[in-house]
Design a protein that fits this description.
Layout lengths: L3 H6 L1 H10 L4 H39 L5 H32 L20 E6 L12 H7 L5 H8 L9 H19 L4 E3 L4 E2 L1 H7 L18 E2 L4 H5 L5 E4 L5 E10 L18 E11 L4 H19 L3 E5 L11 E9 L4 E10 L3 H6 L1 E4 L7 E2 L1 E9 H11 L7 E2 L5 H4 L3 E2 L3 H4 L1
Parallel strand pairs: 2-6, 5-11
Antiparallel strand pairs: 1-8, 3-4, 6-7, 7-13, 8-9, 9-10, 10-13, 11-12, 14-15
């Protein structure tokens, strides 16, 4: 959330920032409502000044033994009008607070200007896509052939766009989760947490999912609880309404968490297999840092997420989001996209974002730089480290063999305890 005073004092800058994101409606409403509020406050001040002058006139007349009843009626009417307008101002201020929740974060000054994802900027590529002698199979075909993915039975259980992992498929999913958690906790210094899968409205509002994306969430009937859409929500809200000790910053957290999204998505290839599902697994990375370090922390976060793909030896690229594809809450964001051979293109596997103090204001998360100093808003960052199901898809496609088997990446062999995924191995393992 942006600070209302900052908006009023920097209207041109704010207007340019939200326009670059293509989200101007809420700011326009804020401007109109704020002007109405100012007019009401001016009217109240004028009425109070008038009431003061009438009070003085009543006192003068009383001293002279003159009639004051008419002036007293005027005083009473003015006082009632002040009360009425004060109530209107309070209601307007509540509406302004609601509008603040709909105004997006401003992009950093060095974010590329652009209208949509076609104008994102590729930063670099890592690794060379493998060349296949025959057209590579899609991960869903590989999974079905190996009997490690069962979409038909998943549909029988929950409907479309769910997956059921079997045998070595379930083991591969678990191996990737454990590998990433071990990497981030042992080598990158993150503290592992396992949060609740249900979050309340305040949590979703705190990280910026609500009110904008309320229709994309699964809500429990008759309860103020929602299925977690990403571990960013519960992990960031761990410190909601807290003042952190500045000496303890930065705080790094990682969490494995099943995630749930009701978004319909477009019909087509991306809705097949493991790419765009209603339920999916992620290992998330969340940081709470001092404002002066958040830019450097974003690049460290990006490095930590990329390290997963480096060790798995899966080709990827890093793309900086332009203003039109930056999203509601982020000030700066980089996407990591891994190579999927059957698609013959890169596919997003992680978004690493710096929110500056946008989420901290919404969730009221502060820190005290030193003992006795004034509390300030902390900066928050997060990124997937990584999305597990898409990573399963990438392993199956990039490591597929001509005989239908899949070679286990070297870094996963200690977790899998096998060299290859092959159908006949299920009964033996």
């Amino acid at each position: 959330m942006l600070d209302a005073k900052f908006i009023r004092n920097n209207m041109a800058k704010v207007a340019a920032g939200v326009a670059a994101k293509g989200e101007t409606a809420a700011l326009a409403e804020f401007q109109a409502l704020d002007e109405a509020r100012r007019q009401k406050i001016t009217e109240v001040e004028q009425l109070k000044a008038y009431r003061n002058s009438v009070t003085q006139e009543i006192a003068r007349r009383r001293q002279n033994g003159e009639e004051t009843s008419a002036l007293q009626e005027e005083m009473k009417a003015a006082g009632q009008k002040v009360k009425d307008i004060d109530a209107e101002v309070s209601a307007t201020e509540a509406d302004l607070e609601a509008l603040l929740l709909r105004i997006p974060n401003l992009p950093d000054s060095d974010v590329p200007i652009g209208k949509d994802d076609t104008e994102n900027v590729e930063i670099r590529r890592v690794g060379e896509p493998r060349r296949f002698s025959n057209p590579p199979k899609a991960h869903w075909d590989i999974g079905i052939d190996l009997d490690i993915l069962d979409f038909e039975r998943a549909s029988k259980i929950a409907g479309s766009r769910f997956a059921l992992y079997r045998g070595l498929g379930a083991r591969l999913e678990r191996a990737l989760i454990n590998f990433m958690l071990d990497l981030h906790t042992r080598e990158h210094g993150y503290t592992e947490v396992f949060p609740p899968l249900l979050v309340n409205y305040a949590c979703m509002q705190g990280t910026g999912q609500f009110p904008k994306f309320v229709d994309d969430a699964f809500k429990l009937a008759e309860k103020d609880l929602y299925l977690n859409p990403t571990a960013e929500v519960p992990v960031t809200n761990m410190h909601r309404d807290e003042i952190l000790d500045g000496a303890l910053l930065p705080l790094y957290y990682t969490a494995y968490c099943p995630s749930f999204r009701a978004e319909a998505g477009a019909a087509g290839r991306d809705t097949r297999g493991l790419i765009r599902m209603h339920q999916f697994n992620k290992v998330e990375l969340v940081k709470f840092v001092a404002p002066e370090t958040s830019e450097d922390e974003l690049h460290t976060l990006l490095r930590d997420a990329c390290r997963v793909l480096d060790l798995l030896e899966i080709p990827y690229r890093i793309v900086q989001m332009c203003t039109g594809d930056l999203g509601f809450a982020a000030a700066k964001k980089y996407d990591i996209e891994l190579w999927l051979p059957s698609y013959n293109r890169y596919m997003e596997i992680s978004s690493c974002s710096n929110f500056r103090d946008f989420q901290a204001r919404r969730a009221n998360i502060k820190y005290r730089p030193s003992a006795g100093s004034k509390a300030e808003y902390v900066h928050t960052l997060n990124g997937s480290g990584l999305a597990v199901d898409r990573l399963v898809a990438a392993v199956l496609e990039n490591y597929q063999n001509e005989d239908g088997s899949v070679t286990v990446p070297a870094v996963l062999k200690p977790y899998m305890q096998i060299e290859r995924l092959a159908k006949q191995q299920e009964s033996a393992n």
